[in-house]
Amino acid sequence: MIKLRLKRFGKKREVSYRIVAMHSTSRRDGRPLEELGFYNPRTDETRLNVPAIVQRLKQGAQPTDTVRSLLQKAQVFEQLKA
Predict the structure, then answer these.
(1) What H or E segment, with its residue span, contains residue 63?
(2) Pair type for strands 62-63 and 14-23
(3) pLDDT digit of tens for each residue in the chain (82 aa)?
(4) Domain residue extents for the chain
(5) How many Å apart are CA 30 and CA 22, to the nearest integer?
């Protein structure tokens, strides 16, 4: 199963995340199938590749709870329905 989840990177106490599509059995920081965005919790900066995310969701990828809330804030699911 393909999951949309966060991949951690950055220094200690200065963490930021990439939103990636990965197999559910692979490691957190393993090689992703595709990088779909960026999230920095310290500054609340979010950059998303919305067409690629919509394409992955149409293919059946399941977002984790955190990624789902980020996508809801960016109103990606409304574009999926359209």
Answers:
(1) strand 62-63
(2) unpaired
(3) 999 999 999 999 999 999 999 999 998 888 999 999 999 999 999 999 999 999 999 999 999 999 999 999 999 998 877 6
(4) 2-81
(5) 8
Give the model's pLDDT for residue 80: 79
| Pairing, β 2-11 against β 14-23 | antiparallel
56 Cβ contact list (under 8 Å, min separation 6): 2, 4, 21, 34, 36
Candidates 3.30.1320.10, 1.20.1250.20, 3.40.50.720, 3.40.190.10; CATH matching 2-81: 3.30.1320.10
Residues 5 and 56 sit within 8 Å (Cβ to Cβ):
no
Pseudo-torsion of CA 15, 20, 25, 31, nearest 10°? -80
Enter the tokens of residue 23.
């197999």
